[in-house]
Write a structure and sequence with these properties.
Order of helices and strands: HEHHEEHHHEEHEEEHE
CATH class of the domain at 144-216: Mainly Beta
Domain HTH dtxR-type: 1-64
Protein name: Transcriptional regulator MntR
Oligomer: single chain
Shape: globular
Subcellular location: Cytoplasm
Radius of gyration: 19 Å
Number of strands: 9
CATH topology of the domain at 144-216: SH3 type barrels
InterPro entries: DtxR_MntR_Metal-Reg, Fe-transptr_FeoA-like, Fe_dep_repressor, Fe_dep_repressor_sf, FeoA_core_dom, HTH_DTXR, Iron_dep_repressor, WH-like_DNA-bd_sf
Strand content: 15-25%
Number of helices: 8
Function: In the presence of manganese, represses expression of mntH and mntS. Up-regulates expression of mntP.
């Protein structure tokens, strides 16, 4: 039986919220989805019947391997769509999230496999996030927040944790794009804003921004 749009939104939330032990709480899901707790409980009971989660009252949910795979496949459709919109249709990376939110609910597997083929099987989406393969496997990344870096370090901009239009436009204005080398020049004691150097030019980034930028050394 096909998953419903609502089920897929829950699966995607599980993907983003699950911790290293495979656990997530009903309260976390409720806040993330802006859905009332009783509704979340009811949906998780259905998920338990499908063996996607292990559900026990008053305990964190445990997302099963089957559940993780289902969640990864929803995320695969979203991230492949974003990449297709950027690489093939020339959308800006700040303009693709909402369109992908709609197209991710298309059920045709062959549609997304063809998209993957046309793109030559990309490993990452336009925001630097890994694209799960057709079996739901995903590449592990060793990244850290720019806000955790130190003065004098040079790092490479690898991904963002937030892909909303306003934040990506903020990065565009500063010509801060993926794979850009970033040198940390100064960290303000007062508000922890960073002065960075990119391609010989200095920029000041707020703490709010540097916490959403992921880098690799």
């Amino acid at each position: 039986m096909r998953t419903t749009l609502t089920e897929e939104n829950y699966l995607k939330a599980l993907f983003h919220l699950v911790d290293n032990e495979g656990k997530v709480t009903i309260n976390e899901l409720s806040k993330f989805l802006n859905v009332k707790m009783p509704s979340v409980n009811n949906m998780m009971k259905k998920f338990a019947e499908k063996s996607w989660v292990i559900y026990e009252t008053y305990k964190p949910l445990i997302v099963t391997e089957k559940g993780k795979r289902e969640a990864s496949l929803v995320v695969r459709k979203h991230r492949l769509t974003e990449m297709f919109l950027v690489k093939t249709m020339n959308f800006g990376w700040e303009n693709v999230h909402e369109i992908a939110e709609q197209l991710e609910h298309v059920h045709s597997q062959i549609f997304f496999d063809k998209m993957d083929e046309i793109l030559d099987y990309p490993k990452f989406d336009p925001h630097g996030e890994p694209i799960p393969d057709k079996d739901g496997n995903i590449i592990a990344q060793d990244l850290q927040k720019l806000s955790d870096c130190h003065i004098g370090e040079t790092v490479v901009f690898a991904s963002v944790t937030l892909s909303d239009d306003a934040f990506l436009s903020y990065l565009n204005e500063r010509q801060l794009l993926l794979n850009t080398k970033i040198k940390i020049i100064k960290i303000e004691d007062f508000d922890k804003s960073l002065t960075i150097e990119i391609e010989g030019k200095k920029e000041v980034l707020s703490r709010k921004a540097t916490e959403k930028i992921l880098v690799k050394k």
